[in-house]
Amino acid sequence: MLHITRIAMQHPLYQQERELRNKILLRPIGVPDYGWEMNDSKSWHFVAIDDAKVIGCVLLVPLDENVQIGQLIQMAVDHHWQGKGVGKKLVKDLVAFAKTKEFTEIVIHSRAEVTSFYEALGFKTFGDEFEEVGVVHRHLRMSL
User: Fold this and answer.
1) Edge-to-edge, what's the strand order for the sheet holding 124-132?
2) Mind listing the pLDDT tens digit for each residue in 32-88?
């Protein structure tokens, strides 16, 4: 049965999370495996689990010293689970957690082709498109 949980880097499921991020996010755009983990140690990690297997993940990185603004990064859902509500549940759990930590805002650098996914969850697009890791992105934010 699908459930979302928060894990630390020492958790046994962390390696599965890393592999999922490599498979879904990094390899398709030519970034080396494990090449985007610079924020892992200071982030909260949320994983979607089905039958002891990580099928989705997302991270929340605090961006300021007061931990009031966070960035949603490294959102990935296994191809077989996309379109089935896993990503939506991950984001909702991340937002609920951010509220308990008294965050005032969450920002995202979203790949342009998936911006509408985040907008449907209440994020607002702002600013111009920009390129990051060779891919067109948009800025989004949600006030909490």
Assistant:
1) 3-7, 44-50, 53-62, 69-77, 105-111, 135-143, 124-132
2) 888 889 999 999 999 999 999 999 999 999 997 777 999 999 999 999 999 999 999
For the chain, domain boundaries: 3-143
What would you report as the CA-atom Rg of the chain, rounded to the nearest whole angstrom? 14
Architecture of domain 3-143: 3-Layer(aba) Sandwich (3.40)
Sequence letter at residue 55: I
Residues in the chain: 144
Owner of token pair 């924020």 = 39
Which helix H or strand E contains 88, and what residues bound it? helix 86-100
Nearest to 141 by CA among 90, 91, 103, 105: 105
The single residue listed with the structure tokens 């200071």 is 42
Give the pair of three-digit tokens for residue 140. Answer: 């989004």
Q: Tell me the pLDDT tens digit for each residue of 103-141.
A: 999 999 999 999 999 999 999 999 999 998 888 999 999
* CB of 87 closer than 8 Å to CB of 111: no
